[in-house]
Amino acid sequence: MANIKSAQKRIRVAEKKQARNKHIKSLTKTAVKKVVVAANEKSTDTNALLVQAITAIDKAASKGVYHKNTAARKKSRLTKMVNKAAV
To answer: In the predicted model, what is the mean pLDDT of the chain?
Structure first.
């Protein structure tokens, strides 16, 4: 454990940020997984789930959890998968 007061605060702040990022990442992964499952089953509500997943990815990118290019890549791959499953 750190002895310096500022170092102790940095540890507390880092733990809070880590918990927040983990929560956001978990919600995003869940939304993506729902889209993947729906696309594999050729479900009818795949497009609605895709919109929710893209929204979750965009929110994660705006909060700094994902880099903007990572978010774009994830959205592109998801959209490709859904379009391929629809054919």
So the answer is: 95
Alpha-carbon span 60 to 57, nearest angstrom:
5
pTM for the complete prediction? 0.88
pLDDT at 44: 87
Q: First-to-last CA distance in the chain?
A: 57
What is the band of 65 on the pLDDT scale with cuts at 50, 70, 90?
very high
Give dist(CA 25, CA 19) in Å, integer.
10
Closest CA to 85 of 52, 59, 49, 31: 49
- Burial readout 10-49 (b: 16 or more C-beta within 10 A, e: otherwise): eeeeeeeeeeeeeebeeebeebbebbbebbeeeeeebeeb
